[in-house]
Give the backbone structure.
Amino acid sequence: MKDILKRLARGELSVDEAERLLKGLSIAEVADLAKLDVNREIRKGFPEIVLAEGKRPKDIAKIASNMVEKNGRAIVSRLDADHVKVLQSMKNEDIVVEVYERARIAILRRADHRVERNPGKVGVLTAGTSDIPVAEEARIIAEEMGCTVFSSYDTGVSGIHRLFPPLTEMINNDVDIIVVIAGREGALPTVVSGLVDIPIIAVPTSIGYGYGGKGVSALMSMLQACSLGIAVVNIDGGVAAGSMAALIARRAHRGEDPPSKTVHHL
């Protein structure tokens, strides 16, 4: 990377050529354990997020350590208690460890690492409190991508009056996109989309039982939504929704100055 930057400074490469070469420097191997895409943020706009599910705690520790060394931070999702324990043990004067239990996410970062802010604004709504873990995944990812997030939970259609105050706040704050999360029959994204001129990312959750349970009915309802302006991610796809929302919100403000602080409402 330094060689590419030096060649750019000497005028031997154009900016476009340097960018293309930097995007190619994407893989770092952790022994024979994993191949990490350490430059994904340069190429894609968001960092590689390490899925802990199915991995041994000691392997997650090695991967996270390498990510922090190469990128300044590591984002690890779908943690269990053993993963959390080993990651927390890595905390020292040089590494900060943030654990979000509801979201099952941990963020490890060098003490001097700072998230680069941008003017993007993302709204996050849930139908019920059972949907909060998935919503927290989306919120944390969007914030780690530098966006300001406005969130409100338990606003579902069974008590539709609860929706209007937080939705009005999001409109007044001119959010660029709203992530709407619901289980059971998954009706909330359709309702929200019918009320606003803001793109919606719908996230079905695995809340629900019996026929069409485990998120199947919610996913089908969202895919069949009659209100236009809705895109749908997979069941419990909080990370996917947060990443997509932040990419769209950031792109809507390319070239603008970042805000002075993050706003988070719950």
Observations:
- The longest strand covers residues 95-100.
- The chain is about 35% helix and 20% strand.
- The mean pLDDT is 88.
